[in-house]
# Entry
Amino acid sequence: MDENTMNNLDLYQLAVQHPLSEAFFLSRAYEELNDFQQASILREDFCGSAAVSLAWVMTDPDRHAVAIDTDAATLAFAREQIDNQPDQVGRNVKLICEDVRRVAPPAVSHAHIIASLNFSTLIFKTEAQILDYFRRCLKHLTPGGIFVMDLFGGPGSKQVGIANRQIELDDDQTITYHWEQRSYNPRSQDIDCRIHFTMPNNTVRRDAFVYDWRLWEVPQLLSLMRQAGFAKREVWGEQIMPDGQSSGQFEPLDQLPDSKDWVVYLIGQKH
# Structure
């Protein structure tokens, strides 16, 4: 493949996603909250290319995933990637083009895990919207099931600017990933974030992905999870070693990280 003509979704997977790590984390979190029982059914909301769903079924042939997104072109890309896997592993992934709030049993099974990753839950800007979403997720979980979302924060999350990172390709060429925080409104918590890519031939893919989000605070979301009816609510983050370095292992936290920028998972569990 010519790197300069790569699909933006390919670039996103290279720069942002770690599907196998996400799948292992979801499995471990469920097991730790359910006396080491194993989850088999994952629902991936706002799935994009459904990379986490694919990783989920690839790690265990008895696993199934439902991946939901509203963008038909993105799901077509996902379907092609899934169908290209060996051993018909993709038969255990069901793709649905629909608003996540409109997908429910019996059209799909109740899930052991519902995951809303890549900060997708931040698309909901009002308490009424996000509370409705949380309640629907709770209703569609099995007993003991967990809802998992990720969130970024810290003082740096509210600062306007661009962070750059080099991505080395197999043929020694380089793509530059640019994460831009274009604006933040402290009153409304609205944040405008964008992803750009600089290709090996120095052409720039500006606004490859554009996000209009509300950057909720952790206490707000935990309170809304409680109102929605989640019996248990936890914040999981990376453990910090005595030398100040991150362990790379996510565990339940008693307090938020004391750092400029952080990413945590919020987990709500059903009775």
About this structure: The chain has two domains: 3-153+215-269, 155-213.
